[in-house]
Request: fold
Amino acid sequence: MSKQAKPRALPENEAKCVARMLRVSPQKLNLLAQLIRGKKVETALADLEFSRKRISVEVKKALESAIANAENNHELDVDDLIVSEAYVGKAMVMKRFSPRARGRAGRIEKPFSNLTIIVREVQSAA
Reply:
């Protein structure tokens, strides 16, 4: 009486991780997504480790989660993984108001973002 298992959306050589509700604007997060897109995972981790951006800690955590998913859930070889996709989406925006001169109010928007990282196993040319 249980429902049917949902078929796997990704190919067999891919694994993904989604980090939701990151407290940074999508434009700023996309700079880090561009930094790691298409690189080997060791290089991408090193780039994020030495990045000076505040959110790079969260992006590094998401990439490590995608690597762990590939290794533990899908039995992929960690040494052959590359970051095939890294894209950013908008989440909610908190609206706040700050008092301004002459009784007015200034609107402050505090955006949140979603980050999706997909790693793929490529066959090493050895």
User: Anything to note?
Assistant: The helical segments are 26-36, 41-49, 56-72. DSSP finds three helices and three strands in the chain. The mean pLDDT is 95.
